[in-house]
Amino acid sequence: MFYDKPAAQWEECLPLGNGRLGMMPDGGIEEESITLNDITLWSGGYQDANNYNAHRSLPEIQQLLLAGKNDEAEALVNKEFVCTGAGSGSGNGANVPFGCYQTLGSLRIKFVHGKNETAHKQYSRSLSLHDAIAHASYTLDGVTYQREYFTSFANDVSVIRLSANQKNKLNLEFTLSRQERFTVRTTDSLLMMSGQLNNGTNGLGMQYLSVIKPIVTEGEIVHTDTSLRIVNATEAILYISAGTDFRDSLFEGKIYERLNNAVRTGYANERKAHLQKYQKLFNRVSLSIGEDKVNLLPMNERLAAYATAPAEDLDLPVLFFQFGRYLSICSTRAGLLPPNLQGLWANQIQTPWNGDYHLDVNVQMNHWPLEVVNLSELNLSLVDLVERMVPNGQRTARAYYNAAGWTAHVITNVWGFTEPGEQASWGAANAGGGWLCNNLWQHYEFTHDRSYLERIYPVLKGSAQFYKSILVKEPEHNWLVTAPSVSPENHFVLPNGKQASICMGPTIDHQITRELFMNVIAASKTLGLDSSFCQELEKVVKQLPPPIRIANDGRVMEWLQEYPEVEPEHRHISHLYALYPASMITPDSTAAWAQAARKTLDVRGDDSPGWSKAYKLLFWARLQDGNRAYKLLNELLTPTTATHINYGAGGGSYANLFSAGPPFQIDGNFGGTAGVAEMLLQSHAGFIELLPALPDAWRISGDVKGLKARGNFTVDFTWKEGRVTHYTITSSESQKIRIKVNGEIKEITTTTG
Ligand code: FUC
Asked: What is the CA radius of gyration of the chain?
């Protein structure tokens, strides 16, 4: 990714990250601003926002729903069935107990250049996905200045190397700051910023510390009270170490330890160790489509050119795909936290929607590519997060539904929030817990790791216990359904003309319930556990509504009733959960359902926020319509600079390839990456299929190595003129499997490796 100017907006800065620390330099010439992040830095704190009386109003809410009085039920939900306190603070929760993911602050570097020339020459700024290293360089007054930045996967610090190609020409001053809650200190050779965020109760929330140590060649370091100056040097290396006390009271010592380790290791060795660790993950997958061409256009211009002639730049979708893999590697690691709404990168105190974990598609989408793009272990931070939610989820299940097991609604944070949100229309969705279980299950489907299945089984079982104990019989068909719930964030018109969201049995809930129960049954058989519980689940599955019901107009029904919709083009398409991420619909085995899904998508339309476009791309890939999937992918790559919230439309990509809702939301990147993989390889229908949704524009030729299929198979293949010309399926032990290649299903024996 290459640019010929410094970033004009934050969404043009190049993101670096090592799964914990993030850094986004803007490449400024006279002054550089670098946003710093730590994935754990959250305001707010642990709280119990359960309304323990809520279950008392459950019978009345359910009676109102059974009587078709959804509006009255909704009023009661708003009164009794929401969290106590401020909840998410309407998405602005930085100073309430829910909290907000926040920027760690900015590193500002002011450069003092020579006095003769003011205009720079030969500016360039770039990010290498292959190395996870960014560069900037320019010539001024006859001196070429270079900057190299990386967040090291080795000693877990960020590193910036600044240099001049003439002796003693490097003069600069740097400082650390934040919009609030910070103190800066210096010693002879260290710059430190520390502070404590608001926990929303007594103010004494999470503590953080950042420390920078410069090492200079031929020059000296001078300190002021709040900054360090580097005078007449030729090279300076800034080592930046940072952390928080999130689940770690000994954090300060570790910050200095990492800093000292990196300084001792030295720049060249740190860089080398960084490359080795990063590339171990990144190099697992290679993809090329058409002939490899070197594209020398700066990214802003390249995106603009792509928008008018996508077929001329077949490498851009490949870059976008690999960029998504890069962002996953950079924004999470096993044992830490999953990527949030902005992954790891935030430049505000009040990040949009608190930069939280939204459970009605967003955090799940963040993890959709991981298995197929061969980054399986990066799913484990989500597993940790979910396990830590369970204790509060059990309290929530009891408080609101008097139910066994655990549940979660629409939002969670690093503090284990599982209560409904503060408003019924979006906050009372029941799908959150079950949908998370789908992610946990996918990791098992791809890896077949039995000890992992043993680990997650109690979480899946607890969620199944919850759904089993809350289902009620609806009167028309005697199906067992959830009540109250909502179809995520959507609303409808009642016969009395009023609008409502609260309902009984939204389609997504019973699709999730069915899938979860089937997974728990399969898991219990594999592990030889709980046979009587499974028999009970088997009985309940038979009483659930069918996964897909088709309305009179040929679309998939989103609710139990054919309510008129308030917003037919609504961004959420939750009732197609059965198509993706579940695998209840395939164009061959359930053709009528597939047709209803197509109709549903056509009426919804394609324009929407980035994540919704990515979801539609995945749906069309599952429907094996490569050209429509490609259209959505290209729309996801539409250049934009807009940063205001647009719920309905306008998804695209910023110049740094971050996905725009708008605003910046990383799920569009991850969903897009999953979408490209799904166009090339699918494995959910009982066999591995190569090129299930290849668009005409990509027929020419291609080569992919290292993708993963369910059952722990590694898949490599090449194609020419739309036909697979060579393939290898590798597994640890030789196995017979079914594979669909060039339209034909056959049995093959895998290669061992
Ligand atoms: C869901 C979406 C919004 C936004 C928010 C973070 O609520 O409906 O578009 O993505 O998450």
From this structure: 26
Burial class from Cβ neighbours inside 10 Å (0-12, 13-18, 19+) for residue 253 reads exposed
Nearest CA to ligand 1 atom 4: 647
682: left (phi over 0), alpha (psi -120 to 50) or beta: beta
Ligand 1 centroid to 578 CA: how many Å? 20
Give the pLDDT band of residue 261 (cuts 50, 70, 90).
Answer: very high
Is residue 719's pLDDT more than 90? yes
* 362 Cβ inside 6 Å of ligand 1: yes
115 pLDDT above the threshold of 80: no
Q: Is the dihedral of CA 345, 348, 353, 356 positive or negative?
A: positive
Ligand 1 pocket mutation, candidates 489, 490, 570, 604, criterion most atoms within 8 A of CB: 489
Kindly provide the b/e burial profile for residues 537-560, where b requires at least 16 CB atoms within 10 angstroms of the residue's own CB: beebbeebbebbbbbeeebbbbbb
What distance in angstroms lies between residue 55's CA and the mean position of ligand 1's atoms?
A: 28
Across the range 648-669, mean pLDDT stands at 98
Among 58, 49, 51, residue whose Cα is nearest residue 469: 58
Q: What are the tokens at 329?
A: 């590697």
- The CA distance from 250 to 45, in Å, is 19
Residue 527: CB atoms within 10 Å:
12
* Nearest 10 degrees: Cα torsion 285, 291, 292, 294: -150
Check whether 524 has a pLDDT greater than 90.
yes
| % residues pLDDT > 70 (the chain) | 100
DSSP 8-class letter at 132: T
pLDDT, mean of residues 624-643: 98
- Average confidence (pLDDT) over 438-454: 98
Both tokens of 206, joined, read 């999470």
Q: DSSP code of 44? A: S
Element (H, E) at 648: none
- The atom of ligand 1 lying closest to the CA of 353 is 6
Which atom number of ligand 1 is nearest to the Cα of residue 341?
A: 6
661 pocket-lining for ligand 1 (C-beta < 6 Å): yes
Q: What is the pLDDT of residue 321?
A: 98
pLDDT score for 292: 82
Residue 118 reports pLDDT greater than 80: no
Which of the four pLDDT bands, split at 50, 70 and 90, describes residue 114? confident
The answer to whether residues 567 and 490 touch, using CB atoms and an 8 Å cutoff, is: yes
Task: Give yes or no for residue 353 CB within 6 A of ligand 1.
Answer: yes
The answer, yes or no, to whether any atom of ligand 1 lies below 6 A from the CB of 127, is no
Distance 79 CA to ligand 1 centre (A): 23
The yes-or-no verdict on residue 116 having pLDDT over 80 is no
Listed in order, strand segments (DSSP E) in 646-693 are 652-653, 659-660, 681-682, 688-690
> Residue 484, preceding bond cis, omega within 30 degrees?
yes
